[in-house]
Sequence to fold (214 residues):
Amino acid sequence: MSLFITFEGPEGSGKTTQLRLLEAWLRQQGYDVLATREPGGTAISEAVRSILLDPAHTEMRPETEILLFSAARAQIVAQVIRPHLARGGIVLCDRYADSTLAYQGYGRGLDLDILRAITAFATGGLLPHLTIYLDIPIEIGLRRKAAQEWNRLEAQTRAFHQRVRQGYLEMAAAEPERWLVVDASQPIAAVQAAIRQRLAPLLAVGGDEGSDDR
Ligand code: TYD
Fold:
C-alpha cells in the first residue's frame, strides 16, 4: 500500500506538530513512513527554499516566486516522494501544491489555472490521497509566532493571510473527498484524534501508487 498525505494551513496552525505526532503513530504500527516538507526535502530544494524565504528578497516578483516553489517541488517529487510511494510507503509532507494555490493564487492573485498548469508540469500530476487542512483564525495563528521570526511570506499583510485562509476553505469545500478540515484552535490531542479517525479507513484499504491526474 502507499499513501501520500499532505498537511496545509496558515501560519501558526500547528501543522508540523501534528505531522510529527502522526508520523510517530504510524511508525509504531510498523508503516514505512517518510516525513518531509516543502519547500525543501532535498539539497537542491533546500537551497531554493533559502532564496524564497530570505526576508531580504523584498524585490521578488510573484512570477519568480511561483517558479521557484515549483522548481523545488519538481525535485522533491521526483527524487523523494515518488520513489517512496513506489516502494509502498507512506509519505507525509508539510505543505504541497495546495500551498501554491492558496498563497500565490488566492494570496497574491496569480491566475489559478496557470498555477495549476505549472504545478502539474512540476509534479507530473501527482496528487495527495488526503490533504489535512488545519484551520485557524489568522490573528491567533500569527500571534503564535513572534514577529521577529517571520520569514518573507509570513511578513505579508493581514489581508493577504485572510485571502490565503479563504482560499484553503474554498478548495477544501470544492473537493471534500480529498480534504479534511480540522479546527486547529482545539487542543493538540483533539486535532490529532480527528486526523487519525479520518486516516483509519485509508490505512485499512491503502492507496495506489500515488494518484496521477485525478
Ligand atoms: P515555513 O517556515 O516552512 O512555514 P510554515 O511552518 O508555515 O510551513 O515557510 C514556508 C512558507 O512558504 C509559508 O509562508 C508558506 C509559503 N509557501 C508558498 O507561499 N507557496 C508554496 O507553494 C509553498 C510550498 C509554501
About this structure: The beta strands are 3-8, 33-37, 90-94, 126-127, 130-135, 179-183, 211-212. The chain has eight helices and seven strands. The first helix runs from residue 15 to 28. The mean pLDDT is 93.
